[in-house]
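HOLO CASE FILE
Compound: iron/sulfur cluster
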Amino acid sequence: MSRTDLPEPDRRPSLAVWKFASCDGCQLSLLDCEDELLTLAKVVDIAHFSEMSRASAEGPYDVSLVEGSITTPDDAQRILEIRSSSHLLVTIGACATAGGIQGLRNFAASGAYASAVYAHPEYIDALETSTPIAAHVEVDYELHGCPVDRSQLLEVLTASLAGRTPVIPGHSVCQECKSRGTVCLLVAGDTPCLGPVTRAGCGAICPSMDRGCFGCFGPADTANTASLAAHLRLQGMAPVDVSRLFATFNAGAPAFRHEALAQGGPVPSAPVRITHRAEREGPR
Amino acid sequence: MRIGSAVTIDAEGLDALIATLASRGYETKGPVVRDGAILPGPVGGINDLPVGVRDVQSPGRYRLEHGEGDAVFSWAVGPGSWKAEFFPPSQELWTSTLEGDVVTSEAPVADVAPLAIVGARPCELAALAVLDRVLLDGAVTDPHYAARRVDAFIVAAECGSPASTCFCTSMGTGPATESDFDLALTELDDDDGHRFVVRVGTDRGAEILEYVPGSETTPRDMAARQAVLASATKAIDRRLETEGLAELLARNLDHPSWDDIAERCLSCGNCTLVCPTCFCSDVSDTTDLAGEVRRQRTWASCFDLDHSYIHGGPVRSSVSSRYRQWLTHKLSTWWDQFDSSGCVGCGRCIAWCPVGIDLTVEAAAIRASDGALRSSPASGRDGR
Ligand code: SF4
Ligand code: SF4
Ligand code: SF4
Ligand code: SF4
Ligand code: SF4
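Model generated. Tokens follow.
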């Protein structure tokens, strides 16, 4: 981490948590650190965290946690201000690091979703794409996951407080899966699993619950998605299904996006059409 | 009972053997069925073992079949190995706290009950012997490994039903075993009934056997054991040509095969984690909010980019250089380091590779075109 020199000991470092296009789940992971939250509040000064308090202190901030992707012109501006008032900027979650599930719109024609979803798309002032924070400003550290893992969040915070490098592996989910003794779903069953190409960090929870890894931590360090995709095709999966497997929370991560497109893309070529509830159910 | 002698016991005898070990304070573990595979787990009696279960294995595929019959050892090795008992996936090495100006550190070695393994395969005994050379008899003895390994009681189970992935016959490690056990079982299930030939490997093995009902093994049962082993040997058709293998790999570091494998290899690390001899680990320090420092050792793999990270970046950034590291370490440089092969032929890395990459096939491919060079040899750091 490049900016670890934190303030002198007599001042508590300040922490700010920011939201962009996201579901708030990653911020909630911080609130979810129930056992550690009080200690954290003692060692850092929580300057801005809307999920916790209306109070908001002025910057500059020692550490900013940024959740969400950039989807509007306003947000593209706001992130520049946050960057300039933050010493250390850490992006948290799939939205902030890869554009999130809303990044699916990057696969469709411009405005296709807006006109399909909103009754009055003319009121929508959105960018054509959903992009990660790193596409706009320099990011000091990225935490992956949908949502992020609580222990990784604490690890990044404690590491920056101690001025050390956080222990965040870049290897595959399979390693966590084998370390916890889960029997491989791909080998001992036919469940599609993205574990071999997905970054560790979750503790391999999904395979331990008999569900294939959904890839919510995004691509591992050297993800060979083509080989895994070829294997899934051999197991009988249709290209569009393989494509959709790669096009979820991290659809915008280059390795996953590339594979989703190589398999023909996640969306049918016909124009997107989503019916409105009012249209489906008729007038009340 | 003398070392080298044998008795024949029945299913009740095996039950009594497990009970005797438990009554002596051993934590008794053996192969159990869990989540569609056979892996190490707690056993209290013969019914905890995989009764009537067989396995079907091939590259990248593993399935269990539940059949009739009383046999408990009609399968080959599963994804778990006994390595994890002695060298766990994660091990705390020490903790340290700061109170005032005083730093207090603790490096406890866990005080756990001794382990008795019932049903370790011959290749697994060979794998433990390989690990012993690394962690026990090397330049440094690992205290955590030693604490559990030194007193472990081993009941081996010779193989009558090898899997298609097994190649112990090439490595000289199975399907029979002559050493590294306290007691060795060979399961017989024929017209004379379901029973086990038990051979004595150590004095304490003999002593435990005093409490187990059985009778001296007849020449007829000994012949039946030989027949089981002969048919198992015949059934193993996977081969790894070991003649000159270490040198072959050492002189083919720029062979085109490495790139060909890298097209398929996911660099997921499954092969190294299921391997009963891979000992690589990562040591990391973490701090918590209260200021406690913890040093942990966790399993690592040479397929990790971080595994070769030194100042300035990873030495082995390409997948082909990482697969090459794995294969050459197992089959070639292990000899330079520990004077043995790092591979015992258990076949786990073949079955549990999600895309079925098979080291016996890859080694044979290199042998078939010994000396071939890739068109653009890797340069710089990645070249070696
Ligand atoms: S279940 Fe998935 S994550 Fe686990 S080892 Fe198999 S492929 Fe990897
Ligand atoms: S390299 Fe493969 S076959 Fe050899 S001991 Fe390791 S897992 Fe078994
Ligand atoms: S093959 Fe790789 S993981 Fe296994 S012991 Fe060698 S370097 Fe370590
Ligand atoms: S490799 Fe040999 S010793 Fe190991 S399980 Fe297979 S047959 Fe048994
Ligand atoms: S050889 Fe197979 S198990 Fe090993 S890293 Fe490559 S894909 Fe994973």
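CASE NOTES: The longest strand of chain A covers residues 61-67. The interface with chain B takes residues 36, 39-40, 43, 154-155, 157-159, 161-162, 164, 167, 169-172, 174-175, 178-184, 186-189, 193, 195-197, 210, 220-224, 226-228, 231 of chain A (CB under 8 Å).
CLOSED: yes
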